[in-house]
Amino acid sequence: MKPVDKVHSATVFIFLVVSVLCFFFYQQYSAVPSATDWVAGFMEEQRLAEDSNEKPPEALEERPPEALKEEGRGNGPCDLFKGKWVWDESYPLYNSTDCPFIDGGFRCEENGRPDNNYTKWRWQPAHCDMPRFDARGMLERLRGRRVAFVGDSIGRNQWESLLCLLSSAVADKSSIYEVNGSPITKHRGFLSFMFRTFNCTVEYYRAPFLVAQSRPPPRSPGKVRATLRLDFMDWSSSRWRTADVIVFNSGHWWNYEKTLRSGYYFQVGNRVKMEMTMEQAYRKSIETLLDWVGRDVNPRKTLVVLRSYAPIHFRSGDWKKGGSCHKETLPDLEGPPPAEAENWALRVAGEVISERARRRRRHRPPVEVLNVTQLTARRRDGHASVYNLGPGKAAPLHRQDCSHWCLPGVPDTWNELLHAVFLRWDLKNHHSLTPAGG
Ligand SMILES: *[C@@H]1O[C@H](CO)[C@@H](O)[C@H](O)[C@H]1NC(C)=O
Ligand SMILES: *[C@@H]1O[C@H](CO)[C@@H](O)[C@H](O)[C@H]1NC(C)=O
Ligand SMILES: *[C@@H]1O[C@H](CO)[C@@H](O)[C@H](O)[C@H]1NC(C)=O
Ligand SMILES: *[C@@H]1O[C@H](CO)[C@@H](O)[C@H](O)[C@H]1NC(C)=O
């Protein structure tokens, strides 16, 4: 090698090193801060404000209720999802006759269900209190914002419950309307209700797998009628990506009947994975969800919630196989969680999330799990059962619905929990550059 070449190589080498370093620093500083960075930043700001005896920013003057502190009272942390059901005469929070936003199938009382005890249970966390659902306050916070539910019909159940809870604070119900004029019972893929006074929409997107459904790739085996693209979010994602609160749920469609037996196979990239198990496929879908959240969602603007699986309660038999729940009038109040609490979908979602959190501590996926599986497992009394067909028409016993829930009822509790999680998140993020209040 000639000396000139040596100098040349050294220059090139140094140039490369500098470039790589620059790129690295650029990445560090241009990356959107993760949710945890954001909170840490907020805490620091709060400390500085206290140190300098300055008036804290507006949001800090609000005293968060007990439930909103990270640590609970007594001897445990505040886990909103650990606790018990207690009888509360002041429930339900609304009457179905006052809420025009409920599918006929969920109006149990109007459909003839004789007992209403299932509407009178309040969820009481073990080491803290939940803030009471404040419809007016939540609407104020949601001013100019969008809430989107994405998932299966149990997600729709929860969406309708939130419409009722929020609309209970609005006297003029005609100021709440579907933006395309679609009726609530007629399915259009998505429905979006506008609360006009608050310029806030509460939306529902049907996407039972959360990932995209597609035509099979060329030269697939004949039995493949369609595929679930496990590495792509549902095609409607561009519509809800920019919502301010997104509540996902899935699980009920991840079974043999609703996939392989109907010719729906799993696809990753260009390949149909004929041998993939249900659990592997579901895991991949949750990984795709977290990847998507990390890549496409702005954690400063959007709260992402994954509502965990809501157990079904067919006793002594399956759906259409003699299973029933129509005589259940009491929750499972005492003792260890009932068998329904054991659910592989919740386990897999939990595993994927904690794996991610372990691998990239500073970049935990900014997803809140609304862990309702166990508390819901205790509520075999809350299903629509035979009161799901309309006024005065009890369904035949072999057609009862032990998956969906009466409204008012159990999904209201999921939304009280959502309200608590949202409040906590909003208080932490209120000082954002584009505050919700405008
Ligand atoms: C529901 O109706 C009952 C009886 O009609 C009434 O006593 C109760 O206050 C109503 N509840 C709400 C939340 O409006
Ligand atoms: C409903 O609750 C009341 C009061 O606890 C009780 O007296 C009644 O027996 C219950 N009804 C049913 C059908 O469980
Ligand atoms: C209503 O809210 C949307 C965001 O959802 C915003 O883009 C729009 O400017 C708001 N309109 C008014 C009149 O405030
Ligand atoms: C959900 O809650 C149950 C009961 O508190 C707990 O055992 C489980 O680990 C939780 N799962 C997740 C994913 O948070």
TrEMBL record:
Biased composition (Basic and acidic residues): 49-73
Residue ranges, annotated region (Disordered): 49-75
Subcellular location: Golgi apparatus membrane
Annotated TM spans: 7-26
Superkingdom of the source species: Eukaryota
Any GO MF annotation of the entry: xylan O-acetyltransferase activity
Region forming the signal peptide: none
Family that this chain belongs to: Belongs to the PC-esterase family. TBL subfamily.
UniProt name for this protein: Uncharacterized protein
Organism: Spirodela intermedia (Intermediate duckweed)
Lineage: Eukaryota, Viridiplantae, Streptophyta, Embryophyta, Tracheophyta
